[in-house]
Design a protein that fits this description.
With 396 residues, the protein is of the alpha/beta class. The protein contains 15 helices and 13 strands. A hairpin with a 5-residue loop joins strand 1 and strand 2. It binds pyridoxal-5'-phosphate (PLP).
C-alpha cells in the first residue's frame, strides 16, 4: 500500500516546495538567546524568537529547574487528576492567578491544548462563539471541536463584532474570543471596547495572552492591565513558551466555576500528561523574577521604541506596534524572502511572511524584539536593514 501513498505525499511535498512554502529547520547548538550559534559554528543575532523577556537562558530558571529535578524527580507519569499533581503545580497555578488578577488557573501541556480544551466543555449547539478573524490556529481548532455556532469578525473591527453580536442574540450564551496581540501586525486587541460590547450584548469575553503577557500593559501584565479591564474578562489563556521562560506549558485562568468545569471536562487536561516538576518550578521562579522588578519589561519596551524610531528614521514602512512585534512592510512576496535571506547572510535572523500567512500584497519582514537584546545588537540589526534595504531598492 505505501508505494501509492508515498507517491501522493511526494507530489504534495513538491507542490509545497514549488510554492516556496516548504519549512526547513535552523539547527542551533547554543542556548536560545539574543546571539545564537549554528551547527556550522557561525553566530547570528536572533530577532525571530518569542523570547520577549530574554528568560530562555536565564540562569535562575535553570537552577530552579535543576533543584526541582533533584527534589521532585524527572516526570509525573500521570495526568493531573489521577496522581500527576505536586505542590509545585498548585503553586504555579496560584502564581498565574495572582499575575492576571483571576480566581483560579488550570495548567496544560501547552497553550495549544488550553485553547483546544476550553470551548467544548463549556458551550453547546445552543451557544455562539464570536471569534476574531486573525485568531491563532489553536483557537480555530478549539472552536472546531465544539458544537457551538460560529461567528467570525474582521480583525479588531468593532462595528463587525457588534453586527455579529446582534446576529448571535438568539443564542443561549455568547462568548467573544480574541488574541491579545496579533502575531503578524503586532497590534493589540481593543479590550476596553470589546468589553463594552460584551456588556451591551450580554456576552462572555476570552483573550489569548500568548504574545501579550509579559509585554503589554504598564508592568507587562497583559491586556487587562493595559486597558484596565480587570474583572471584565472571563477567560484568559496563555503560554509559558514565550515571554514566561520559553520552555513549554500553557494555562487557562479566570472565573472560579469556569476553571472548575475545565478540571471536570477539558479533554487535554483529563487525557494528557502533567507538566514535569522542573517546568512547574521554573515557572514559579519566572513569576518571582517578574514580581521582584520591572527591569526586563522596561528594557524590552525601550528596545521596541529605539528599534522602531531608528527604522522609521531610516525610511522603512513600519506597522504601528504596541507590542514586541515589529512588521517591516515590503508588500512584495519574493522581495520578503530575498530580504530575509540577505539579512541571514548578514548574521541577522528575521522572518519574511507573505500570502497566505498575511493578506495578499502585504508581504513583510517580522522582527521580534527582546529584553535580551543589547543596544549593540539593535544597532547591528538596523545597520543590516539599511544595507540590505538600499541593495534591494527598498530604501532610496
Ligand atoms: C504561540 C501561541 C499559542 C501556542 O502556545 P504553545 O504553548 O506553544 O502551544 C497559542 N495561542 C497564541 C495566540 C500563540 O501565539
Amino acid at each position: 500500500m505505501y508505494g501509492k501513498f508515498q507517491q501522493h505525499l511526494q507530489q504534495e511535498l513538491n507542490s509545497i516546495e514549488n510554492a516556496g512554502l516548504y519549512k526547513k529547520e535552523r539547527i542551533i547548538t547554543s542556548p536560545q538567546s539574543a546571539e545564537i550559534t549554528l551547527q556550522d559554528g557561525s553566530r547570528a543575532l536572533n530577532f525571530c524568537a518569542n523570547n520577549y523577556l530574554g528568560l530562555s537562558d536565564n540562569p535562575r530558571l535553570a537552577v530552579a529547574a535543576k533543584k526541582a529535578m533533584e527534589d521532585r524527580g524527572y516526570g509525573m507519569s500521570s495526568v493531573r487528576f489521577i496522581c500527576g499533581t505536586q505542590d509545585l503545580h498548585k503553586e504555579l497555578e496560584a502564581r498565574i492567578s495572582k499575575f492576571f488578577h483571576t480566581e483560579d488557573t488550570i495548567l496544560y501541556a501547552a497553550c495549544f491544548d488550553a485553547n483546544g480544551g476550553v470551548f467544548e466543555p463549556l458551550f453547546t449547539a445552543d451557544d455562539a462563539i464570536i471569534s476574531d478573524s486573525l485568531n491563532h490556529a489553536s483557537i480555530i481548532d478549539g472552536v472546531r471541536l465544539c458544537k457551538a455556532q460560529r461567528f467570525r469578525y474582521a480583525n479588531a473591527d468593532m462595528a463587525d463584532l457588534e453586527a455579529k453580536l446582534q446576529e448571535a442574540q438568539k443564542c443561549r450564551f455568547r462568548i467573544i474570543v480574541t488574541d491579545g496581540v496579533f502575531s503578524m501586525d503586532g497590534n493589540v486587541a481593543p479590550m476596553d471596547k470589546i468589553c463594552d460590547l460584551a456588556e451591551k450584548y450580554d456576552a462572555l469575553v476570552m483573550v489569548d495572552e500568548s504574545h501579550s503577557a509579559g509585554v503589554v500593559g504598564e508592568h507587562g501584565h497583559g491586556v487587562a492591565e493595559k486597558f484596565d479591564c480587570y474583572g471584565r474578562i472571563d477567560i484568559f489563556t496563555g503560554t509559558l513558551g514565550k515571554a514566561f521562560g520559553g520552555a513549554v506549558g500553557g494555562f487557562t485562568t479566570g472565573r472560579k466555576e469556569i476553571i472548575d468545569m475545565l478540571r471536570q471536562r477539558s479533554r487535554p487536561y483529563l487525557f494528557s500528561n502533567s507538566i514535569p516538576p522542573m517546568i512547574a518550578a521554573a515557572g514559579i521562579e519566572t513569576f518571582n523574577i517578574l514580581e521582584e522588578s520591572d527591569e526586563l519589561h522596561t528594557k524590552l519596551m525601550e528596545n521596541v521604541v529605539y528599534f522602531r524610531e531608528k527604522m522609521m528614521a531610516a525610511g522603512f514602512d513600519i506597522k504601528p506596534t504596541q507590542s514586541a512585534i515589529c512588521a517591516v512592510m515590503l508588500y512584495d512576496a519574493p522581495l520578503s524572502q530575498k530580504f530575509a535571506a540577505r539579512m541571514a547572510e548578514e548574521g541577522i535572523f528575521v522572518t519574511g511572511f507573505y500570502y497566505p500567512v498575511v493578506p495578499q500584497g502585504q508581504a513583510r519582514i517580522r522582527v521580534q524584539l527582546s529584553a535580551a537584546h543589547e543596544r549593540s545588537h539593535l544597532d547591528k540589526a538596523i545597520a543590516a536593514f539599511i544595507k540590505v534595504g538600499k541593495e534591494l531598492g527598498v530604501l532610496k
